[in-house]
Amino acid sequence: MLKLELRHLGALLDALAGQGKVYAPFRQGGRTDFAWYDGTAGRDAAALDLEHHTARAPKDVLFPQVEDLLRFRQQGKKLGLEAAPLPTESVVAFGVRGCDTAGFAILDKVFLQDPADLYYRARRDSLTVLGLACGELEETCFCRTFGLDPAAPGGDVDLWLAGGALYWQARTDKGRRLTEALGAAVPFTDAADTTADTAAGAAADAVPPAVAAQRDAVHASYDRLPLAELRFDDRLYHHEREAFRSPVWESLAATCLTCRTCTYVCPTCHCFDVRDEKTAPGTTERYRCWDSCMDRDFTQMPHGNPRKGKTERFRQRYLHKLVYFPEDHGGTYACTGCGRCLQACPVSLNIVKVEQALAADLGAVGAAPDGKGGAQ
Amino acid sequence: MQKIEDLMRAKAAAVLADGAADCVLAWKRGIFPYDHAPALFRRGDDLADLVYDVFCPANLAKYLLATSRAGERAAVFLKPCDTYGVNQLLKDHRVVRDRILAIGTPCGGMVDVKKLRGAGCGTILAVKDRGDVLTVTTAKGPVTVAKGEVLLRKCLACKGNAYQIADDEIGTPRGTPPAPADRYAEVRTLEGLSPDERFAFWRQELSKCIRCNTCRDVCPACTCEQCVFDHPGSGVDGKAYVDTSQEALFHIIRAFHVAGRCTGCGECGRVCPQGIRLDLLNHKFAKDIDAFFGPCQPGADADSPAPQSTFRFEDPEPEAVTRQDDRRDRHA
Known about the structure:
The complex is a heterodimer of chains A (about 375) and B (about 325).
Chain A: E1 2-5, H1 9-17, E2 21-28, E3 31-36, E4 66-75, E5 78-83, E6 91-96, H2 98-111, H3 118-126, E7 127-132, E8 157-162, E9 165-170, H4 173-182, E10 189-190, H5 200-205, H6 209-223, H7 235-238, H8 240-245, H9 248-253, H10 261-265, E11 272-280, E12 283-290, H11 310-328, H12 340-344, H13 351-361
Parallel strand pairs in A: 2-6, 6-7, 7-8
Antiparallel strand pairs in A: 1-9, 1-10, 2-3, 4-5, 4-12, 8-9, 11-12
Chain B: H1 2-17, E1 23-28, E2 37-42, H2 64-69, E3 74-78, H3 80-91, E4 100-104, H4 113-118, E5 124-129, E6 133-138, E7 141-146, H5 153-156, E8 168-169, H6 185-191, H7 195-206, H8 214-218, H9 245-258, H10 267-271, H11 278-293, H12 319-331
Helix pairs in contact in B: 9-11
């Protein structure tokens, strides 16, 4: 494990920028969000914020809100087609929490399954993720419900802010390549250099006391969170029909505004729409953009919409995460416990309330066939 | 607030029991101290979950669209500022008066959870309302915060404790409203900027938009059957930007559309997940309408003529706006 004094964070950002575009959390106007590092005010080392959770998930680094796919150009009687170039530029995502790297893994299941989405794969291949262990937790955090560890972010490189320094542990080949490429540009020291007589291999694996203390502290704070013991009820995805027909949907959806906030801040929502827009005389561009099941034209087809109204669309959002996704992906929920929908919903509806209402309604259905109670 | 909450539960139980209402619109207790959700209570529902405290900012007026449409008579708890929205819905002929049982509910200002976090309350575990101060239990121990410091922005522009429409009232006396602030102070600051500076300000604000449409969806004045921005045939049904001017136009068109009907409830500014100052845009329109057509408070009643849809010979010509700008530029 390597160590970097915090005063060198600026140098680290600059060195990372030498390896690719850097996507990092910056604080501006009282809120923190991922943005492209460019050294300008608000997107510089001074604004870098590794403390607060970001208002939105960084999923757009892999799945941009708008992505060009194709351009049609009318040339006389011919129609010219130009595919948008694949996005192969190197990108470094800096400071991604465990709930969000888990979000990337869920997007991978969708976009990389055969046939893989070419644009997503190009972005994924070009991305190196620098995961950041959580320090402060928020009362809305519930990542452990999904077997995640807030102190083990699961990036290509994992970072810990501990004892006034940044600790750096490469975990994958991508992470090791990035670490090597940074080379002397970043004044790393060996985090285990106080034990100079330890064998090199052992030193690399050793967890410095500051990091160990930080992990313990985060685990202890997690235990005190209101949702620390929250488990999702696996019976839901073993009883799709009952979940689908539950009477809870009508009452839960009654006060949903059907805005798109929850779907846009979510690290796992991945529905998209493909649209054509005339951008100049004779030129049309095809792009895809985030869709939202909260949208009235979500899954609108020429014959009409299979989901008639807001209750059906609301149900789609939660069944997708709690039932359909785990059915299709070996019990993995399309939720990582980041807690953003708990904070962002303007009328305080969210996946935890929905799951609890649904599980209570299914109380009479019985245990899951495999006898499991909680999600792991 | 405990006493008011009890009175509200009793009232809800009574109107459901005696058939005065088919359903009750109120707030339902959440998982945390602050995440109470608007909820529709019906006969047989557990009213123990009905909650009322400083974390009930949502304006329930707009839900009357659905209940009224369904032919149900809804009892609705309304804070003073929410009553304006109901009148405006009535004036816009969007709801049926007989299907509404308006219950005035006292309010002393609602708390902004984001401000609470900013005031050193990182992990909020419990909140105790002690009148002028809140005692917040956080992961790091108790924190005492002055309520005035953490009120929602919309409460800083409080219009007072009078109900504009109420068939019934909960509790007496009425709540003590937050100290009235000058709701147009920031608008005047913006007006004092040069056109280029103003353009830069709005460019920056509106460029943050992610087109979640929450401002529209929460707005009691936005009641179209199908919004033009959702209409596939409109040519402007952008789900996302192609260029940033589309976001700017969305907000400007929306502001024009609700001008003269916006009650200034401030919900748009509260709900924006990107923190865009949409309240300022609507306040600017309200201020101009006051100046050009005489004092006007949408939602203060349900039947007075609306300035934007009523022609009077003495109405100013469009040049009035240009003249106003010219004057300001000369002063600048």
